[in-house]
Amino acid sequence: MALPTDKIAATGTVSLRYAGKLRHLGIGRAHAAQPVLMLIHDTHVITSHAATGEVLAEHHIDPDRDYEPPTRPPS
């Protein structure tokens, strides 16, 4: 099983295609350019730093939204 990897954009978000739509998950600008892994289970997403494993944010995907603020704020 491959985990989705990405880098956090300068705006503090990562992009994720979910249910055929592009979503933007807010992580925080303090983490810009950091490599991340995303663990996705149904509508729950956990984003962690790819090298350290530190959990940066958690999200619950709302099908009616494009931008998802974190349910667990960035550390």
The main pleated sheet reads as: 4 strands, antiparallel
Q: Please report which band the strand proportion falls in: under 5%, 5-15%, 15-25%, 25-35%, 35-45% or over 45%.
A: over 45%
- Let me know the average pLDDT: 89
Count of helices?
0
How many domain modules?
A: 1
What is the general shape? globular
List SSEs in N-to-C order.
EEEEEEE
Strand order of the largest sheet: 1-4-5-6
**Uncertain runs with pLDDT below 50, 5 residues or more?**
none
Q: Determine Rg (CA atoms, Å).
A: 11 Å
Q: What is the count of β-strands?
A: 7
Structural class by helix and strand composition: mainly beta
Share of helix, binned? under 10%
What is the first-to-last residue Cα distance?
27 Å
Protein name: Transposase
Organism: Janibacter limosus
Folded structure, characterized:
By secondary structure, the protein is mainly beta. The chain has one domain (5-68). The chain has strands spanning 5-7, 13-18, 21-26, 35-41, 44-49, 55-60, 67-68. The strands form 2 sheets. Strands 1-4-5-6 form a 4-stranded antiparallel β-sheet, with no helix packed on it. Strands 2-3-7 form a 3-stranded mixed β-sheet, with no helix packed on it. It comes from Janibacter limosus. This is Transposase.
SSE order and pairing:
Layout: E1 5-7, E2 13-18, E3 21-26, E4 35-41, E5 44-49, E6 55-60, E7 67-68
Parallel strand pairs: 3-7
Antiparallel strand pairs: 1-4, 2-3, 4-5, 5-6
